[in-house]
């Protein structure tokens, strides 16, 4: 038995995926061992109890065991070799005697279909070379298959476990069916291995149940199963597809560090209490569509290598994806979300986030984290803007709104509305980028200053002491430049303009003053540059007014 257990662990640790071949090989090995043991016992002619150190077991006929059960006598065997099939399906009355056949080998099938057991049944460490059929059986007391090896079909459909169901370390080599089974008390499958298909559909687990460190090597079904108390799959491995579709979890559900090597289907499942998938690994699709999470749900540090589908799901309490890795898409289409945390989550370059028609109250995800992955949907973008405003994440709200307007503008046909949007984009970043207005203001000042300087369109007024005759002559030449001058001959007055090119810095100074609708005392435009200065003043008032409006709006928000 120790050797067999070691082999089981080695197979699992090696990540064996072709379980059908493994089952066939293991069946041949066991049959060979059983045949050798039987021949050795017959040759020796001994009928003694099993000596573990010598590896010799006493042979017991199945008829002897069934006779004791019919007589109501206790059945107590250890380290025996049972030859023949044990068939109690036609016993016609409840089995009241306790049964204990441990660390033994039953070289045949066990048929207890429909049998009612009043006393405990202990088959720990026993090897079953044939089918185990317990369809519709009822166990009023504790049942133990701990460490047992069921080499062929294990049928527990409609079985009722009234006491503790102990399947710790059990190896199910053939297909297992526990559909519609009922576990009234604690059920433990810790360390078990299901080498073939396992069916727990419509099973009911009334008390705490443990599937911790279990290996499911073939497809597994928990569809429509109901877990009324704590259920734990801690560190279990599902090597092929598993389905929890339409299952109900009334107590806490623990999927910490569970590995799903193939598709994990939780479509339509209902989690009435807290559930955690922390550090779980989903190698293929994780389907939670139409699922309902009524308690806290934790996916922190989980790894989604493919799509994580939560379409039409209801997440009615806090949902946590902190430090979660998404290598595939995150689909939240039409979902209802109360509060979702995506702190320090990471997305691959190709990952997409779908929030189409999603309704969420609180989304704790920085815009910088999701902006490159969010699939455009106008309602989703506006909902995110509102979400960021409610949390007073102003920069995130502004950046989200800006990207929303950019994408919306790019999809519009050319027309008046799009032209207005383009102006709004360039001038103020749709009202959320005052830096754009500052940039254009500085650019206009520099541009017009350069135009004035290159075209020599600015004149400088010179201050000189001239006679009245010279002053009158200058005023006749340029009456606008000398309007309001004094008639005193001895005063210093602006009486002469020079046509030399003014310094570039003075052109910038004049441009800045014109931009703010102010006229410098010593500089004035000439010719066409009077109109250029007027245009600059109009643009200046527009940009300055726009800056005040945008800044005020941001401060109010």
TrEMBL record:
The keyword Membrane applies. Signal peptide: none annotated. Residues 474-485 have a biased composition (Basic and acidic residues). InterPro entries: 5peptide_repeat. The keyword Membrane applies. The chain crosses the membrane at residues 436-455, 508-526, 538-556. Keywords: Membrane, Transmembrane, Transmembrane helix. Residues 472-498 are annotated as: Disordered. This is Pentapeptide repeat protein. It comes from Methanothrix thermoacetophila (strain DSM 6194 / JCM 14653 / NBRC 101360 / PT) (Methanosaeta thermophila).
């Amino acid at each position: 038995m120790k050797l067999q257990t070691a082999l089981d662990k080695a197979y699992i640790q090696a990540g064996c995926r072709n379980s059908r071949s493994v089952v066939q090989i293991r069946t041949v090995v066991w049959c060979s061992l059983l045949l050798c043991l039987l021949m050795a016992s017959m040759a020796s002619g001994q009928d003694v109890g099993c000596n573990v150190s010598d590896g010799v077991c006493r042979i017991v006929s199945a008829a002897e065991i069934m006779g004791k059960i019919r007589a109501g006598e206790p059945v107590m065997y250890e380290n025996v070799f049972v030859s023949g099939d044990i068939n109690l399906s036609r016993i016609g009355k409840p089995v009241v005697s306790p049964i204990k056949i441990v660390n033994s080998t039953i070289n045949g099938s066990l048929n207890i279909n429909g049998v009612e057991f009043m006393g405990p049944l202990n088959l720990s460490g026993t090897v079953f070379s044939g089918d185990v059929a317990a369809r519709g059986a009822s166990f009023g007391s504790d049942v133990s298959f701990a460490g047992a090896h069921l080499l062929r079909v294990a049928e527990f459909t409609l079985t009722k476990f009234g006491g503790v169901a102990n399947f710790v370390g059990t190896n199910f080599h053939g297909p297992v069916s526990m559909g519609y089974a009922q576990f009234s008390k604690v059920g433990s499958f810790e360390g078990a291995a299901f080498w073939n298909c396992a069916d727990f559909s419509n099973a009911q687990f009334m008390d705490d149940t443990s599937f911790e460190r279990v290996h499911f090597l073939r497809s597994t079904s928990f569809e429509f199963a109901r877990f009324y108390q704590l259920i734990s799959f801690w560190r279990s491995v599902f090597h092929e597809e598993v389905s929890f579709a339409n299952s109900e979890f009334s107590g806490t559900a623990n999927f910490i560090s569970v590995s799903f090597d193939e598709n994990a289907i939780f479509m339509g499942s209902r989690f009435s209490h807290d559930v955690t998938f922390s550090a779980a690994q989903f190698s293929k699709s994780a389907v939670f569509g139409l699922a309902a999470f009524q308690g806290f749900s934790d996916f922190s540090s989980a790894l989604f290598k493919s799509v994580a589908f939560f379409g039409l799901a209801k997440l009615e309490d806090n949902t946590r994806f902190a430090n979660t890795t998404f290598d595939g898409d995150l689909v939240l289409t039409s979902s209802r979300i109360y509060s979702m945390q995506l702190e320090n989550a990471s997305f691959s370059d190709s990952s997409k986030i779908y929030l189409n028609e999603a309704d969420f109250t609180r989304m704790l995800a920085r815009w910088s984290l999701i902006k490159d992955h969010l699939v455009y949907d106008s309602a989703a973008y506006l909902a995110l803007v509102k979400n960021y405003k409610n949390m007073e994440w102003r920069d995130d709200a502004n950046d989200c709104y800006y990207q929303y307007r950019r994408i919306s503008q790019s999809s519009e046909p050319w027309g008046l509305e799009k032209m207005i949007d383009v102006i709004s984009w360039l001038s103020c970043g749709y009202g959320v980028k005052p830096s754009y207005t500052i940039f254009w203001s500085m650019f206009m000042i520099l541009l017009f200053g350069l135009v004035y300087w290159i075209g020599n369109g600015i004149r400088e007024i010179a201050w000189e002491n001239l006679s009245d005759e010279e002053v009158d002559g200058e005023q006749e030449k340029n009456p606008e430049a000398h309007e309001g001058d004094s008639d005193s001959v001895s005063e210093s007055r602006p009486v002469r303009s020079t046509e030399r090119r003014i310094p570039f810095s003075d052109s910038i100074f004049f441009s800045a003053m014109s931009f703010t609708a102010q006229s410098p005392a010593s500089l004035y435009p000439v010719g066409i540059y009077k109109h250029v200065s007027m245009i600059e003043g109009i643009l200046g008032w527009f940009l300055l007014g726009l800056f005040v409006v945008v800044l005020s709006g941001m401060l109010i928000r």
